[in-house]
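Table S2 (continued). Query chain:
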Amino acid sequence: MALRAFADGALFAEAIGNGPPRVLALHGWGRRGSDYRHALAGMDAIALDLPGFGASPPPERAMGAHGYAEAIQSILDEFPSPPVVVGHSFGGRIAVCLAAGHPDRVGPLVLSAAPLLRLETGRRPAWGYRAARRLNRLHLISDERMERMRRTRGSSDYRAVTGVMRDVLVTAVNESYEDELAHLRDRVFLLWGDQDREVPVPIAEASLRLIRSNGGNAELEVLPGVGHLVPVEAPEAMRRVVAEALAG
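Corresponding output:
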């Protein structure tokens, strides 16, 4: 796999294979395109480093999956026909937005462990934390102290990033994609690990029902013994599903 620059250096990607690309792969949060090295072996594909990850520089401003879809949409010019788009986790959010926004330029989707719907309302932060945020806005608690409190409360992904990428994460985790799923008309393959604790199978099942109830063509395969990182944990299964998507 060779790392190549696209979009005048705004995007970098692993180029897989030697022929015209047919697959566009979008990785998960905190990962990079090389996650697909084994899953897409033997195929002609472009596996992006999404903005802010791997070799691709971060976006200038915070944005969610829709913003990311528009930021990378120029990569579609590299494909002679609408590609199969593979999206894992955060990349799955972007894939759905890309397909909904550019239906004539995107082919079937293969989505794994993508948090497409919010099935539960998140718990409200504790009173003390809410009070601290208010005091911080009033400049009665320092930014440094507030940051220490955030780091004790946030997820590992949240604690690992700062600046614009933290704002991107906050934006994305508060999004849900009911409208986008309802407008998908090409085939959608949902590939999930039954041991996924980050994005459990009921999210895939609810996404499947939503797509089908709106006339879409979707199917779900649940992989026994597989966790969240499907492209790395189950590359053979992903390669098989991508090959099916390519075959039409």
